[in-house]
Amino acid sequence: MAENSTTRQKLTAASGDAGRRLDLFLAERVPELSRTRIQELVREGHVHVDGLIARVSHRVAAGEVVEIEVLARPALEALPEDLPLDLLHVDDDFVIVNKPAGMVVHAGAGHARGTLVNALLHRLGKLSEAGGALRPGIVHRLDRETSGAMVVARNDRAHEHLSDQFRTRNVRKIYLALVHGKMPRDSGSITLPISRDPHRRTRMTARATKGRHARTDWRVIARLDRSTLVEVTLHTGRTHQIRAHFTAIGHPVVGDLLYGAPRTLQVGKRNLPPLERNFLHAARIGFSHPSTGAWVEVRAPLPEDLRVYFREAAASSGCRDSEIEAALAPYA
Length: 332
Hints:
alpha+beta, Pseudouridine synthase, nine-stranded mixed beta sheet, 17 strands, single chain
């Protein structure tokens, strides 16, 4: 399906599709479009269900006819935009921002507005130009549905210095993730190579025999009924690394429907409401200051939606309040 011209597809939901969110249904049926692009088309009114304009949150029913119209995209620009922004650290060389889940880092895949770059340009006026016109200041990224600490360069010299640290793996990156199932040990390391999934191009895979070297270390923070809270240390920075690695060992990140996680988390005899995002948060980042060489380490507090979800899951698993708060305290 070419995106430089208008194309249309008509799809009928089968009985097995009943209850699926519209964007996930379309992502499976139209794999050449990313989920982000599909959500954009829905928001712009180019998706109809039984002849009516659909919403992203719509859940399909068996027999419904879904029509999707794909239009050519307008040219992308990185322009300032007044958006809420939580800056954890600011100096002349870089900023560390607490990116919220749901925010795209920079323009692309149909996102010309509402990105982290748009917000930073409004707040700071100027970022490093080394990343290019659409990615000013960007030396690394977080997935759209991942929250947490990101460093962004404010000048070209700092950009080069920070990029070198990422390239030589001298940046400390700590994440917090809730994964399905009970991890078999208290700690471990995943070293499976990562490559593009040949069947679904929007995903990566760690199940192929070939790919780029990747290493993910983890340790258990708390064990619940049918899930485990883990602290994750990244030693490489492959696309979707944590998500692909934990899926490959049979423990997908809670909420990560793209990588096969169940829509809901079962705790005892109860299914918790859908999280509607990945339970994955970049909790801490550390690196050498581009100008002084001093070690800089900043923590991004766990967002309230994840705290509430974990408390509910833990309480339903029979954990005491003191145990729950002890697990979350280092990430406050």
